[in-house]
Design brief:
Arc Repressor Mutant, subunit A; 10 helices; 2 domains; three-stranded antiparallel sheet; single chain
Length: 231
C-alpha cells in the first residue's frame, strides 16, 4: 500500500461534490473502478470553463497517473476504465455520447445534470458545431435564426463560419443578414464573402428596401456587387 503524507498547509484547490453523491450514489456504488471514474469526472469537469463541460475518453486514457491506479498492465487499466464508465453510465451518473467527426469518432461523457442533459439533446439534434483539437465540439443550444437560414440556403456551418456569422450579428441587423442570404441564394452566389459584400454596400449606401426579392425599380442582381465578389 502506498502511503499518503497528508494535505499540505495553506490553501489547496477544492472541488464541489453534490450532497446526493454521499446520500444516494456512494451507498450504492459497489465497484471500485466505477467509484474512481465517478470521482475523477467530478474533478475533471470542474477544471474546465464554460457552461457545457464534458470529459473525453481519450483524455482519461492519457492521464497516466489516474490510469496507473486502475491496474498494473495497460490491458487491465483500459478494461477497468471501460467497465467503470459503463457502470456509471448505466447507473445514470454519467451521460455518454459518441460524436462522429470528419475523420474519427470521439467518446465523450457529461455529468447527468440539467446542463449535461441539454448538451446531449443538442448533440442528438445535430445542434452543435465543430470545435478545435482540444475541445472537439462547440455546443449551440439555441442557434440564432441566421444560422438556420444560412444552412438552409448556403451550406453547412463550420466553426470558422459560425464565428463570422456572429461577427456579422454584431455589425448588422439580423433581418439585413437574412435578406442578404436570400439574395446570395437567388443570384447563385452561395458564399459568405458575397453576403458580406451585400451588407457592406447596404451599410455604405443604404438598404433601399431590398428584401431579397428582385423588383422592377431596383434589380438586386449579381452586377450590383460584382466589384466585391471573389472569383
Amino acid at each position: 500500500m502506498k502511503g499518503f503524507n497528508g494535505f499540505p498547509p495553506g490553501k489547496t484547490p477544492h472541488i464541489r461534490v453534490p450532497s446526493l453523491f454521499f446520500s444516494e450514489l456512494l451507498p450504492s456504488i459497489d465497484h471500485l473502478a466505477e467509484m474512481k471514474v465517478t470521482v475523477y469526472c467530478f474533478w475533471a469537469l470542474q477544471r474546465q470553463e464554460g457552461e457545457y463541460k464534458y470529459v473525453r475518453l481519450s483524455e482519461i486514457m492519457a492521464d497516466e497517473i489516474f490510469m496507473a491506479g486502475l491496474g498494473d498492465t495497460l490491458e487491465k487499466q483500459q478494461r477497468e476504465l471501460m467497465e467503470g464508465l459503463e457502470r456509471a453510465t448505466a447507473r445514470g451518473t454519467l451521460l455518454h455520447v459518441t460524436l462522429h467527426l470528419q475523420h474519427e469518432s470521439e467518446e465523450i461523457y457529461f455529468m447527468n445534470t440539467v446542463n449535461g442533459r441539454n448538451a446531449v439533446k443538442a448533440i442528438e439534434s445535430d445542434n452543435w458545431l465543430p470545435g478545435d483539437a482540444k475541445r472537439p465540439i462547440a455546443l449551440i443550444i439555441e442557434r440564432p435564426n441566421i444560422f438556420v437560414v444560412y444552412e438552409q440556403n448556403i451550406g453547412s456551418i463550420t466553426h470558422r463560419i459560425a464565428d463570422q456569422l456572429r461577427s456579422l450579428e454584431d455589425d448588422y441587423p439580423e433581418q439585413w443578414i437574412v435578406d442578404a442570404i436570400y439574395i446570395a441564394t437567388e443570384n447563385n452566389r452561395r458564399s459568405l464573402r458575397y453576403i458580406e459584400a451585400i451588407l457592406e454596400r447596404w451599410n455604405r449606401e443604404g438598404k433601399h428596401g431590398f428584401t431579397g426579392q428582385r423588383s422592377s425599380e431596383h434589380d438586386s442582381s449579381e452586377e450590383d456587387f460584382s466589384d466585391y465578389i471573389e472569383r
